[in-house]
C-alpha cells in the first residue's frame, strides 16, 4: 500500500487549476492557426487572430485565458493500492481549488444554491469530481475548467434505437446550430452515447479531454467524427457566431453499452478555450 | 467593406448612425459592467422610478464578470459573457437612454426591436479573449452592488476597447447575415 497524504493532493490540485487556466494546449492554438488560413471571412479571421493574441498575452502575463475560469471539473483515477492519509480525500481536492482560485487570481463562479438566493460560495468550491478506482498505486488527476456559456448549450436526449446513427448525427448538428454564437465558437463538441441518462453526459464531458485531432479508436465512430466536423463547419455560424467556416475545432464521440430499450445521447459543448491539464501523483 | 471607427463615450447618436454590421469599433472612455444579477436590480430601480447608480444617457453596458486583478493590474481577465441572459432586462434600459451593450451571442427580437426604436447598437466582443481585452481597461472601480462580487457594477475606463458591430441602428443582424453568407449546407 502506497501512502499519499492529502496535503500532496491539495498542493497538486492548486497548481493544476492555475496552469489549466493560464496556458492553452498547443493542440488548440495549432487548430486555430490552421483555421485562420482557411477562413475567407475578414471578421472571422480577425476574431481568430484576436484569440491567438490572447493565448500569448495570458501566457506571458500569467492571466486566465478567459475570465470564466469555470466550474472546476475533475476526473480522478485513484489507484486501488493507494492509501490516502491525513484527511478527507474530496476535501483535499476542494482545498486545492480554494487555494488555486485565490492565489491564481481566478474568478470564483459558483453559487451555493442554484435557484433562490444564488449567493456566491466565494472560493469556487465545490468542485465536480468524477472518481474511478483503477489498478495501480498512483492517482491521476485531470482538471477541465468548464465555462458557463458553453455548458449552457449542452443537452441529453433519450433517443430510440430506431433513430440510429443518422438520428445521433442530426441531434448533434441541430444542437450546435441552435447554440449559434453563444458557446464561444469555434467550439469542441463532445458526444457521449450509451450508458444511462447521467452516464452519457459524463461520457460526453470526458470525451472533451482528448486533444484536438485525436480520433476515436473505433474506426466507425472515427469516420462519424470527421463527417460531423465537416457538416458542422458548413453551418456558417463561424467564430463567435458572426459568420464563417470555423464553427468547431473537433468532434469527439465516446460510447459504452446501454439498456436494450435505450439510446441515451449527450452533447457537451466546449468553448474555444478548451482547457484541460493532467498530472499523476 | 467594413470600416474601423474610434468612438468616445458617452455615445452620440450621430456616431451610432454611421455604424453598420461588421464594422470594427475601438471604444474609449467610461463603460459600465453588469450581468444578470445586477440587471435585475437596475431594472427594479427603473420600475420604482429611482436613480440608477450611473448616468444612463449615452451609456455603454459591458456584460462581464471579471477575474480578480493581480497586484499592479487595473483588472483581471475580462471577456464578455453571453448576452441573451440580459435580454429580458435590456429594452427597459434602452428606453431610458442606454445606447450600446457589449457582450457575446445573438439577442432576442424584443432587444433588436428596442435598439431600432431607440437608435442603439449591440457590439460583440470576442469571448475568451479576456486577457487581451483586460489590457484595454485602464481603471476599474466598483460603484454598486459590491455583494455581487465579480457581478458587481463597475465603472471601467477603457482605451481602444475592441468590438464588432453585431446589430446596427438600422436593424441589421450580423449573426443572421454572417451565418447566411457562409452557410454551405
SSE order and pairing:
The complex is a heterodimer of chains A (281) and B (185).
Chain A lengths: L1 E4 H17 L3 H13 L3 H20 L9 E9 L2 E4 L3 H15 L24 E7 L4 E8 L1 H4 L3 E5 L4 H16 L7 E9 L1 H11 L11 H14 L15 E11 L4 E8 L6 E4 L1
Parallel strand pairs in A: 1-3, 2-4, 7-8
Antiparallel strand pairs in A: 2-5, 5-10, 6-9, 7-9
Chain B lengths: L3 E5 L4 H6 L5 E10 L2 H12 L12 E3 L27 H5 L5 E4 L5 H10 L2 E4 L5 H5 L2 E8 L8 E15 L6 H9 L3
How does this model look, in words?
The complex is a heterodimer of chains A (281) and B (185). Chain A is α/β, with parallel strands linked by helices and 281 residues long. Chain A is 39% helix and 25% strand. In chain A, strands 4-2-5-10 form a 4-stranded mixed β-sheet. The two termini of chain A are 14 Å apart. The mean pLDDT of chain A is 97. Chain B is 25% helix and 26% strand. Chain B has 6 helices and 7 strands. In chain B, strand 4 (100-103), helix 4 (109-118) and strand 5 (121-124) form a beta-alpha-beta unit. The two termini of chain B are 25 Å apart. The chains are: A alpha/beta (281), B alpha/beta (185).
Question: Short summary of the structure?
Answer:
The complex is a heterodimer of chains A (281) and B (185). By secondary structure, chain A is α/β, with parallel strands linked by helices. Chain A contains eight helices and ten strands.
